[in-house]
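sorry for the late reply, my laptop died twice this morning and i had to redo everyting from scratch. anyway the thing you sent over, i finally got around to it. pasting the sequence first so we're on the same page, its 268 residues, then the predicted structure underneath. double check i copied it right bc i was rushing
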Amino acid sequence: MTDSSHVQYHIGLSGAMIEGARYVLMPGDPARVSVLSAAFARSRPLGQNREYHSALAYAEDLPTPVLIVSTGIGAPSAVVAIEELACLGVRYFLRVGTTGAIQEHIAAGDLIISEASVRLEGTSSHYAPIEYPAAASIDLIQALREAARALGVPHHSGMTCSSDSFWPGQERRDSFGAYVPRRFQGTLEEWRRLNVLSYEMENSALFVVCRALGLDAASVCATVACRWQREAVSHEAYAKAKDDLARVAVEAVRRHAARAINVIGRHG
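ok and here's the structure:
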C-alpha cells in the first residue's frame, strides 16, 4: 500500500494532499492552472515545484475533487507527472493545451480533440516500441465531444502530431537559425495530406504511456496558430478560446464521471 503522506519528488504532492482525486487536468503552462480552477465552483492551490503548479478543484456533482497540474513544455516533463500522479491513485488524465492547426477548415480559437497522435517524439519509445499506437481513451473522447457539442463550442476531432521540438519538427522557419533539417522538410504537407489536424508536443507520449500503464487519457487543445496562414502564434486566439477550453474540459469530466458511477451502480 502506498504511504499517503509520501510526497512525490517532482510534482511535490502526496496522496493525502489530493483527497482521493481520480481525474487530473493537465495544462502545459502553469498560468493556466488558475484559468481551469475558475471553471469549478471552488478550488484551492496545492503548491508548486519546478514546472508543476497544482490545485484541487471541487464541484457539487462530482464525488471527489479534480486535480489540476501543469506539466511544462514537452513530453518528458509530462510523463514525469503521469508516473507520479499514477502512484497517488490518479487514473484519468486529460491534457488541456494549445496546438497549431495544419488543415484549412480549422479556425483560430477552435478546439481540437485528439483521437490519436503521430509519435514524432522520443519519450514514448522508452515505454513501448514505435509500432505501439498512440491512441486516446474512447470513453474520454466521447465525453469531450459530447461536452463541446452541448456547450456549442466549435471543435474538431481526429489525428494530431506530437513533435519533440517547437520549430524544426513542426517544419517551422521562424526560429533563430531559420533552418529545417532535411528529415523534416516537406513533412507539414505530408501530415496534412494524411489528414492530421495539428501539431503539438505532448499527446503521443500521454497516450502511449497511459495505455501501457493501464490508465485512461485524452486531450483537448485550443488552436492558437493556423499554419497555412502564418507560423506565428496568435495570443488573441488563445484569449478567445481559453474559457471554452476550460468549460469543455470540466463538462467532459462531469459526463465521464457520471457514466462511471452509473456503470458501478448497475454492477454494484
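The two ends are 24 Å apart (CA to CA).
thats about all i looked at so far, will dig more tmrw
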